[in-house]
Each structure stands twice: as C-alpha cells, then as structure tokens.
Amino acid sequence: MEMDLEGLYSLDLQALALELAERIRSPRVVDAFCGIGGAAIAFARRGKQVDAIELQASRLDMARRNAQRFGVEDRIHFLEGDCTEKLEPAADTAIYLDPPWGGPAYGKLEQFRLKDFSPDGATLLRQALAVSPEVLFKLPKNFDFADLQRISAPTAILRNEFRGNLEYYTAVFLRNGG
C-alpha cells in the first residue's frame, strides 16, 4: 500500500475491513473519509460498489493507485471533496464514517467524544442517519458510548480485534430491522 504519515496511523487493516465488509447489507457503500483507500478497497474486494470520498487530492491519488494494486479500481468511484456536501439519500447504500481522530494524540484523552472528531461526529452521524438506512461509524478504543445514545441507539457495537488486541469499535445503525 502506498501511504503518507497520516495513512500510516489511520489505515484500516485489510483483515478488519474485510470482516466489516461482510457485515454490510447494502450493495453500495460510501466511504466518507477514504484516506488512502484501506476500507474502500476491502469493501470493493467483497463485491460492493464504493463511492470513496476524500478531501485531500494527494490522498485520493494514493487511494486510486492502491485500488489499482488490488485490482478493484473498477468497483470504486473516487470523489474529491467534503463528504458533508456529497452525502445524498440512497435506500441501497451504506455509509461508513471514519472521520479523523486527531492523530495519535487521541489516545491521551480519558474519553473520546463525538465532538472530538474532525469534523464534529454528532453532525456527521445525524447527516448520515438522515440519508441512509445503514450507517457504520468507526470509534476509538477510549470512546464514550453514552455520547451515541444522545443521537441514536446503535443496532450493534462491534469489537474490531486483530490478533487478540482491540483495535477500535464500529457502531452499526440499521433503520427498519436490525
């Protein structure tokens, strides 16, 4: 995988992203913060059509090249820009949210809150829930889960572990039948 310094600490491990892709019910997925493409590639490898949105052109270019290396570039539509301006209603599309956590410094917080994401996690979650029946939100290990309850109760909280170590959580929201 081609990556920059931010990609080094924010990349979704393929093993975990592939497991998550298996759980997504929708045939399409919007990876709202695709970065260098880790999750988008895994979703495409599991047969999903993916819209990969990234604010930084250089990182989107890396995501394109990484998708080519995995042979899934034909299943991913790359979009440069702010995801908050690109999320549109779609009944057959899941939204995967993995907004920046603030780099390695996030671990120094006793409890990570929705307001600590950039952009604000509460605003992102409300927007995603308004346009999609299936939303997945990647959360750090030190996340304050009571914060989610103020917006919407998740259908499930997944523990994403690699080699027996907790890496992060994923909150899954399913509208109409979870």
From TrEMBL:
One of its GO terms (molecular function) is RNA cap trimethylguanosine synthase activity. PANTHER family: S-ADENOSYLMETHIONINE-DEPENDENT METHYLTRANSFERASE RELATED (PTHR14741), TRIMETHYLGUANOSINE SYNTHASE (PTHR14741:SF32). This is Trimethylguanosine synthase.
